[in-house]
Structure formats: structure tokens, C-alpha cells
């Protein structure tokens, strides 16, 4: 087995997926976006199981990872369409927070180069409501940051899907023979 085999590349891609999922999870927690938090949690579990399958030569785990990647790609396309207001979806809806709170993307108020202005009313200074600040301008608007996150996830996932297909095809049927 060479140093840059498909199996090693898939292990690297799974590790990269775990890192980017953790980063995405942190910002979804900061924005109280409950649907992405749950989906990212399942994604982390599936990638860990896929990683286990690749390391232990278990094709069934890698196939499960492949099936999850199809769902993950669909989720990222949905989130991209939501933030770009495509297909009748709106970034101003509370779909991602599951209607539990009025919170939005953390990047909306804290994006790169964002200048925000706190409402001047003296009675509101002790309140911790994110709706009381107004973002004047940002270097990159929050919806594009979220879409860039989705694009990065899509690229890594599609590469992982391709390598996982190849890895599953190289595993022999004897590798899972004790399950039968």
C-alpha cells in the first residue's frame, strides 16, 4: 500500500470533514440554529463511523458513509438555496432555528468587517437581545459566508464520496466474511 493510496486519502478527507463540521457546529451553536446543530451532530457520527470502516476495512460502514454523503450533499444544497433565497426559500425564515427562537446566523452580526450600531435607548443597555443591534455594513454579507461554508462541505463531501466508492470497490468480500 502506497503512502497516498485512496484509503489514506479517504482517511484524510474524513478528518478534514470532522474539522470543518466542528467549526460549523460552533458557529451554529453561537447562532442558536437548532436544525443545523442536529444535522451536524449526525454528520459527525456518520463520518466517524465511515472513518472506522476505512481504517478497519469494513465495507458496510463505508457504504453507510456513502449513503450519508448523499443526504449531506442534499442538506448543503438546501442550506445554500435557503441563504440565497432560491426556490421559494427565504433566509429570513426561522426554519434553521426550528421556530424556537428568533436567532439567525452568528455571522449576521459578527461577520468580517461588520460595523454594528447599538440602539441608543438607555433602558435597553442591560438587555442581551441580538435584535437590539443594527449591522451597518460588512465586508462580506453573512449569507455568502454561510454559502461558502456549504460549498466547502460540498467539495469535501463529493471528494470523499468518490474516494469512498473506490475504496469500497477495492475491499474484498472476505473482509466482512465473519458477519455472515
Automatic annotation (TrEMBL):
Entry membrane topology: Multi-pass membrane protein
Cell compartments where the protein resides: Cell membrane
Keyword match Cytoplasm: no
An annotated GO BP: regulation of sodium ion transport
GO-annotated cellular components: plasma membrane
UniProtKB keywords: Cell membrane, Membrane, Signal, Transmembrane, Transmembrane helix
InterPro entries: Na/K-Atpase_Interacting
Signal peptide residue numbers: 1-21
Ranges that cross the membrane: 34-55, 62-86, 151-171
Pfam families in UniProt: NKAIN
The UniProt record lists the keyword Signal: yes
Family of this protein: Belongs to the NKAIN family.
UniProt-recorded name of the protein: Sodium/potassium-transporting ATPase subunit beta-1-interacting protein
Taxonomic source organism: Seriola lalandi dorsalis
Amino acid at each position: 500500500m502506497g503512502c497516498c493510496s485512496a484509503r489514506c486519502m479517504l482517511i484524510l478527507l474524513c478528518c478534514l470533514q470532522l474539522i470543518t463540521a466542528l467549526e460549523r457546529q460552533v458557529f451554529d451553536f453561537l447562532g442558536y440554529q437548532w436544525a443545523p446543530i442536529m444535522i451536524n451532530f449526525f454528520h459527525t457520527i456518520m463520518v466517524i463511523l465511515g472513518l472506522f470502516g476505512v481504517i478497519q476495512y469494513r465495507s458496510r460502514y463505508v457504504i453507510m458513509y456513502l449513503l450519508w454523503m448523499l443526504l449531506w450533499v442534499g442538506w448543503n444544497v438546501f442550506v445554500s438555496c435557503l441563504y440565497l433565497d432560491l426556490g421559494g426559500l427565504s433566509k429570513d425564515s426561522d426554519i434553521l432555528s426550528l421556530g424556537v427562537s428568533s436567532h439567525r446566523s452568528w455571522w449576521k452580526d459578527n461577520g468580517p468587517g461588520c460595523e454594528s450600531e447599538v440602539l441608543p435607548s438607555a433602558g435597553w443597555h442591560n438587555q442581551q437581545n441580538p435584535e437590539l443591534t443594527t449591522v451597518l455594513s460588512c465586508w462580506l454579507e453573512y449569507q455568502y459566508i454561510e454559502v461558502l461554508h456549504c460549498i466547502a462541505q460540498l467539495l469535501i463531501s463529493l471528494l470523499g464520496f468518490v474516494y469512498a466508492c473506490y475504496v469500497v470497490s477495492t475491499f474484498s468480500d472476505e473482509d466482512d466474511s465473519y458477519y455472515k
